[in-house]
Amino acid sequence: SCSYQRFVNCYRCFYKLQPQLTRSIYDQFISQLQASIKEEIQEVKNEGNLEGLFSSLDKIVEEAKDREEPAWRPSGIPEQDVRSTVVPFLLKHRSHLRRALREKEEENSKVAESVLMGRDRIAELQQLIQARQQAWQ
What Å distances lie between residue 28 and 16, 23, 31, 114, 137, CA to CA? Predict the structure, then answer.
């Protein structure tokens, strides 16, 4: 193979003396290198909990198969990305606050109406009391 030839070129003197041993050393080196790489990859997977992340990613992909609208993707402009995410939330929040304000205003107008009716009733009672007081005197 090509990599073996490069290895032989690096260790030419040793290869001329013992070619079988050179091949054996190369095979051991490659197998240890592959094992080390696999071990490193497994360690990265374990540290980053990649198995769980990959399974949750697969689940998201499965759920998104039935969607007709495309998934959100960043545009690369942070201001635009934040705006596209935050503005709909703020508009929804604003409509909720407007609805709450409208309800409170209606409630306040009903309370103000009942206060005015109460004041009118108090004024009528005061007039009635004065009339009875004058009639009694």
Answer: 19, 9, 5, 95, 126
Number of domains in the chain: 1
- What's the domain range around 42? 1-48
Residues 6+ apart with CB under 8 A from 84: 72, 75
pLDDT digits (tens, 9 = 90+) for 70-123: 776 778 888 888 888 889 999 999 999 999 999 999 999 999 999 999 999 999
What is the C-alpha separation between 137 and 131, in angstroms, rounded?
10
- Beta carbons within 8 Å of 81's beta carbon, 6+ residues apart: 74, 75
Q: What is the pLDDT of residues 30-80, one digit of tens each?
A: 999 999 999 998 888 788 777 788 888 888 888 877 877 777 677 888 888
Q: Which residues contact 29 (CB under 8 A, 6 or more apart)?
A: 7
What is the chain's length? 137
Cα(108)–Cα(128) distance, integer angstroms: 30
> 8 in a domain, yes or no?
yes
